[in-house]
Amino acid sequence: MALEFSICEVRWERYRRVSENPHTREWLKFQAARGLAANTIEAYGRDLDRYLGFLETENIPFHSVIRPTIGAYIRSITQLEVPRVSRKGMEARSALANATLQQHLTVVRLFHDFLVEERVCARNPLRPLIGGRGLIQRHHRLPWIPSEEEWQNILQVCKQEPLRNRVMLAMSYDAALRREEICSLEVADIDPAHRLLRIRLEVTKNRRERVVPYSLAT
Fold it and tell me: What is the pLDDT of residues 8-30, one digit of tens each?
């Protein structure tokens, strides 16, 4: 059976600076051609557009970017506040999460790798000549696990839902499926005789197809 490979369309109208610059446009087109997920391309385009905006404001060309430049860019995005909604329903504001900052740096690092390969820049400022630590320390948090009381509350609410929603919740929990994976399941992906689910590669985050079991209770 031939593997399915899909290339998502880049929505250039969302990233004006990226679309107008030949280097950034070519880089984002290449990322899309690799078959990356649409959400990944969206994040890459959005973050790269913000990076270009910073360089334009500071009047810094690509070949003049050095590590202090990246440090200044980090400071600029850490000062951005993002809206949050508290549990009480009151709007609050908080700084960008560590994972979001890491994502911004990943885009900048990959883009400068491309510039080095294209001989636009001599070296990547995010890749030091001698091994060292990253500019921002990566935080590792334990996942949130509901308490017994919280699980009971979830199940009580779930009982009021239609059968479709109850099945989706059970399969998501039982087979550890992401939102896109559970929403993209088709009848042909379910093997009730062996209690197996086929997760197609085009809906997975890492583009790797897998087969996962689900329990008899589900």
Answer: 788 999 999 999 999 999 999 99
